[in-house]
Design brief:
single chain, 160 residues, mainly alpha
Length: 160
Amino acid sequence: MRRMMAAFIALVLLALPAGHAVQPDEIMPDPVKESRARELSRELRCMVCQNQSIDDSDAPLARDLRLLVRERIAAGDSNSQVLDFLVARYGEFVLLKPRFELQTLLLWLLGPVLLIGGGLALWLQIRRRSRTGVDVPAPPLTPDEKARLAALMSDEPKSP
């Protein structure tokens, strides 16, 4: 019963959404601007954690970036202006989802191209096998292999 309860609690804790790292002193008084800031924070990569948004990161640099986003929003910048400012300052790497541009074309297209290529290769292999209709037989066993197989299949215990 204890194990079941512990498993249930662990499952509930895993199902809860991740806590956000935004501190109370960072929150903007205007709820509309705060929601914009949170939306932008979810799109920006923490340069320390790298696979975590600045909205979820506790790193000091992530806090600085969150404050910078809020500062730019308070100054009247649009979402795209804030993102452009941060990309100009930190590079395209700061975006969790890179933009679809010429320099990121390979990044965006490599996954679908590999998936289509793998599916095509699998389809060709299945088609080739169905044409022949005959599987390649295994080579016959050598006398040593036959003896070893007979020893393995016998019910008598082996002597060391």
